[in-house]
């Protein structure tokens, strides 16, 4: 019972912060809906070490890939242009993009991915349903941020599925024995 009160209290506090922010209304609804995920009645079997480690690794990898693509690819493509960024500017932009990418992948991506696991577990075409859930939640943010959230959602989903296929738990078990 204490855990339920704690969950409701934390949810209420973050919802209040979101509601009083300058964020557009539809974004407020999206963020509060994503937070509702944590109020769902999951058993301890859902939050396994393997699943949570895989999600965190997927988020970190997705954020790194996104950061590199967004900052380095334009620099390489436009290197002949005289206004190319200096080393300092490029480093600063990598740090800023990485910070926001990690925030997005951890605060929004991991809960959506866990929700995707929960929803897709009830269907025979789990892979397709999981991809649709990821892309749907990524597309909810498109209005403000172009297609970037959908690309991030797709990359998170692909990385997570590759890790799941490779049986990420064997990697965890092998690390624990050394």
UniProtKB/TrEMBL annotation:
<feature type="transmembrane region" description="Helical">
    <location>
        <begin position="29"/>
        <end position="47"/>
    </location>
</feature>
<protein>
    <submittedName>
        <fullName>MFS family permease</fullName>
    </submittedName>
</protein>
<keyword id="KW-0472">Membrane</keyword>
<keyword id="KW-0812">Transmembrane</keyword>
<feature type="transmembrane region" description="Helical">
    <location>
        <begin position="90"/>
        <end position="115"/>
    </location>
</feature>
<keyword id="KW-1133">Transmembrane helix</keyword>
<feature type="transmembrane region" description="Helical">
    <location>
        <begin position="127"/>
        <end position="159"/>
    </location>
</feature>
<feature type="transmembrane region" description="Helical">
    <location>
        <begin position="59"/>
        <end position="78"/>
    </location>
</feature>
């Amino acid at each position: 019972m204490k855990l339920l009160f704690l969950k409701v209290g934390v949810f209420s506090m973050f919802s209040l912060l979101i509601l009083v922010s300058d964020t557009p209304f539809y974004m407020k609804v999206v963020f509060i809906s994503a937070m509702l995920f944590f109020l769902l009645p999951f058993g301890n079997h859902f939050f396994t070490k393997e699943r949570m480690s895989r999600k965190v690794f997927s988020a970190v990898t997705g954020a790194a890939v996104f950061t590199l693509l967004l900052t380095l690819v334009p620099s390489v493509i436009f290197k002949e242009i005289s206004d190319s960024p200096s080393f300092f500017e490029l480093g600063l932009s990598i740090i800023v993009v990485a910070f926001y990418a990690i925030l997005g992948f951890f605060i929004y991506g991991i809960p959506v991915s866990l929700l995707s696991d929960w929803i897709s577990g009830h269907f025979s075409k789990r892979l397709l349903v999981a991809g649709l859930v990821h892309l749907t939640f990524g597309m909810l943010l498109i209005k403000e941020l172009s297609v970037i959230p959908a690309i991030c959602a797709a990359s998170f989903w692909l990385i997570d599925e590759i890790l799941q296929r490779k049986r990420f738990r064997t990697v965890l078990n092998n690390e624990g024995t050394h």
